[in-house]
């Protein structure tokens, strides 16, 4: 089967790398960690009490970092999804890992939803993020674990 | 329903030609992991790959791959 629309398999690792860098950058933007870069680059701005004043352009640079890293994550996911597999063995391993991960993610989300419904003291409206987060985490970890299990070397 | 396992003589054929797993993988354009998994019976190759593997050893598919009842 020809896969003309897919890009070469070598871009798959670049995609994973881009997602990891993007997540680190996004985390930095969300926690205003960029100020520490300013501290390193321009230490003379530090006040006598050890605090560091936010420069006037800080928030625009922080927003730019946030947008750029979000775009990097999106690009990484696209690179990962739209690359060819090196061979049919990896194609089937990835397919099976995805199937496992979908079931695991769904199961994780449903179980947590059940817990929130049955356990007292929870308002369902406030549990959406936890349920979605658990689903995504279960999907990701199962995918990586299953793919590693299928493709590990046993020679 | 009977269950079958696909076995193969890849390791024997490779030894006959003094070929490494990496060399065989390169000849049929797959990864070494794929060859390892096929040799160990962990992965059942597609018909196309099975024909290509057999062709490397100058044999027919059913000389290299055969079924065994589980």
UniProtKB/TrEMBL annotation, chain A:
<keyword id="KW-0812">Transmembrane</keyword>
<keyword id="KW-1133">Transmembrane helix</keyword>
<feature type="transmembrane region" description="Helical">
    <location>
        <begin position="130"/>
        <end position="149"/>
    </location>
</feature>
<protein>
    <submittedName>
        <fullName>Uncharacterized protein</fullName>
    </submittedName>
</protein>
<keyword id="KW-0472">Membrane</keyword>
<feature type="transmembrane region" description="Helical">
    <location>
        <begin position="64"/>
        <end position="83"/>
    </location>
</feature>
<feature type="transmembrane region" description="Helical">
    <location>
        <begin position="95"/>
        <end position="118"/>
    </location>
</feature>
UniProtKB/TrEMBL annotation, chain B:
<dbReference type="InterPro" id="IPR001387">
    <property type="entry name" value="Cro/C1-type_HTH"/>
</dbReference>
<dbReference type="Pfam" id="PF01381">
    <property type="entry name" value="HTH_3"/>
</dbReference>
<protein>
    <submittedName>
        <fullName>Putative transcriptional regulator</fullName>
    </submittedName>
</protein>
<feature type="domain" description="HTH cro/C1-type">
    <location>
        <begin position="10"/>
        <end position="64"/>
    </location>
</feature>
<keyword id="KW-0238">DNA-binding</keyword>
<dbReference type="InterPro" id="IPR010982">
    <property type="entry name" value="Lambda_DNA-bd_dom_sf"/>
</dbReference>
<dbReference type="GO" id="GO:0003677">
    <property type="term" value="F:DNA binding"/>
</dbReference>
């Amino acid at each position: 089967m020809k896969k003309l629309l897919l890009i070469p398999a070598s871009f798959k690792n670049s995609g994973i790398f881009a997602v990891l860098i993007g997540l680190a950058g996004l985390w930095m933007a969300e926690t205003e960690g960029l100020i520490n870069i300013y501290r390193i680059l321009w230490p003379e701005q530090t006040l006598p009490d050890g605090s560091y004043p936010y420069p006037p352009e800080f928030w625009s640079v922080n927003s730019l970092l946030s947008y750029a890293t979000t775009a990097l994550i999106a690009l990484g996911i696209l690179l990962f999804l739209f690359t060819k597999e090196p061979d049919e063995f990896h194609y089937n391993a990835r397919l099976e890992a995805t199937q496992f991960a979908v079931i695991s993610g769904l199961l994780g989300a449903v179980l947590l939803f059940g817990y929130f419904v049955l356990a007292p003291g929870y308002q369902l409206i406030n549990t959406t993020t936890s349920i979605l987060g658990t689903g995504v985490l279960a999907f990701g970890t199962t995918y990586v674990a299953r793919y590693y299990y299928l493709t590990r070397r046993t020679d | 329903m009977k269950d079958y396992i696909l076995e193969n003589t890849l390791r024997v054929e490779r030894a006959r030609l003094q070929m490494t797993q990496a060399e065989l993988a390169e000849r049929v354009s797959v990864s070494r992991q794929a060859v390892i998994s096929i040799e160990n019976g962990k992965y059942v190759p597609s018909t196309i790959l099975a024909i290509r593997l057999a062709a490397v050893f100058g044999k027919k598919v059913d000389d290299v791959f055969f079924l065994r009842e589980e």
